[in-house]
Amino acid sequence: MATRTPLIAGNWKLHKDCAESVAFASELKAAIPADIDVDVMVAPTFTALHPVCEVVKGSPIAVGAQDMFWEAKGAWTGEISAEMIKSCGCTHVIIGHSERRQFFGETDDTVNAKLKAALAAGLVPVVCIGETDEERQAGKTFEVLETQVKNGFQGMAASELTTVVLAYEPVWAIGTGNTATPEMVQEVHAFLRKLVADSLQKELANGMRILYGGSVKSGNIAELMALEDVDGALVGGASLETESFSGIVRYKR
Ligand code: PEP
């Protein structure tokens, strides 16, 4: 059985300007023990990536972008490439967040293009998938997730996907306070691991970290992390304050 180091990731979304991000990152650096035995990642807004990377240097905190573009360079006004993100000092990138899918036209095809570019640049991609409330009510959860995974990973071999992190984020649980029940989470995570095993490779599936996201807080993280197929969390709202995020990171202590 592969050992999967848990990953606790904080998505700051459209919060905190440069100065606020830097101040918050140094608070987190002080609050998170240097010998923490989980991987920790924060995703500030693009403009704060470089300064935050500078602040957390030498700490267990890694930095990721919240999105990226798949082209390396050219006439793409407003876009940011994987190499540019890397040059800020980042090691991770979130791809396909439901807010990107819902409000900015992200599709499984764009997720696939971004995933390929992120991997080519050596970034660790955190690929987000999840069903809407309507899809769950219609009994389509597994069908939707299967399509998102298969299309998102389209044209890639298991050997290319070894660093990929999957984040299951039911859309109805994001920012709503409605965490999925542990039973729902384990059922979906086990389904996703089996899907990766059957469609790609068992070894890849055993080693792949599958995060849960959707109203995670310090009060429910331990219960979620106790589930067999949960390997970490992608945290939105509760990642914006030192006490709550460091509490989530220190869930074992
Ligand atoms: C998210 O946006 O990825 C998320 C999980 O948000 P929240 O924790 O606020 O539900």
TrEMBL record:
Record keywords: Cytoplasm, Gluconeogenesis, Glycolysis, Isomerase
Pathway: Carbohydrate degradation; glycolysis; D-glyceraldehyde 3-phosphate from glycerone phosphate: step 1/1; Carbohydrate biosynthesis; gluconeogenesis
Biological function: Involved in the gluconeogenesis. Catalyzes stereospecifically the conversion of dihydroxyacetone phosphate (DHAP) to D-glyceraldehyde-3-phosphate (G3P).
Catalytic activity: D-glyceraldehyde 3-phosphate = dihydroxyacetone phosphate
The keyword Cytoplasm belongs to this UniProt entry's keyword annotation: yes
Protein name: Triosephosphate isomerase
Primary residence: cytoplasm
Stored PROSITE patterns: TIM_1, TIM_2
EC number: 5.3.1.1
UniProt GO molecular function: isomerase activity
UniProt source species: Desulfoluna limicola
Positions contributing to substrate binding: N11, W12, K13, G175, S215, G236, G237
InterPro entries in alphabetical order: Aldolase_TIM (IPR013785), TIM_sf (IPR035990), TrioseP_Isoase_bac/euk (IPR022896), Triosephosphate_isomerase (IPR000652), Triosephosphate_isomerase_AS (IPR020861)
Subunit structure of this chain's protein: Homodimer.
Residues at the catalytic site: H97 (electrophile), E169 (proton acceptor)
Keyword Cytoplasm annotated: yes
Family note: Belongs to the triosephosphate isomerase family.
